[in-house]
């Protein structure tokens, strides 16, 4: 099958990401058959390290697809990186602003245009001490329900051993095995056609992220926690 065309900027990013990927671990890819060869898909991942986007991008690119990330808009202000993000069709996310809906609309349009869109619904690297997914933002559910595409859960494991942002540790040697695994698409048929309110968005978000969490439990070969970790104010308020 021919590779999906990404253009100059995707090619430039690839020349950087492939060496970085090799330098930061030994990748083991599993479940890439769940990524469609053509057409849109929403790839929903956990987030444990700043290295995750590099390895997610390679996971998708080696499946001969072009990755499009939902990423915080401030990255577009970084010299060179901002040019690559704009040129390669990445999607800026404007959190907690009037432009937040614009971000979701852009992501939904990319899915309708047959792109693979990648989202880390936690919004940041997990604060869970054991590396499990946190309670996530509901934008993923809004995009999933507005799109008729596969919703594919995926996980990274091992990237935090190489670069732990909160622990301020970077240890590329000895090279760590990094597991990236995609699972079967999440069945949202029970929610199609229902009014989309806050309750449905929370339910669908938790369903999707529970599939991500279960997939991570398989990779780790240990039981997952029964509940999602909640950050400071959420824990105190019991939300």
Automatic annotation (TrEMBL):
MF terms in GO: 1-acylglycerol-3-phosphate O-acyltransferase activity
- Parts of the chain that traverse the membrane: 6-25
**Domain Phospholipid/glycerol acyltransferase span(s) in chain numbering:** 41-159
The answer on whether this UniProt entry bears the keyword Iron reads no
What keywords does the record list, in alphabetical order?
A: Acyltransferase, Membrane, Transferase, Transmembrane, Transmembrane helix
What does the entry list under GO cellular component? plasma membrane
Keyword Transmembrane helix belongs to the record: yes
Under SMART domains, the record lists: PlsC
Report which superkingdom the organism of origin falls in: Bacteria
**Pfam families, sorted:** Acyltransferase
Q: Name one GO biological process term.
A: phosphatidic acid biosynthetic process
Q: What is this protein called?
A: 2-acyl-glycerophospho-ethanolamine acyltransferase
Q: Which organism is it from?
A: Pseudonocardia autotrophica
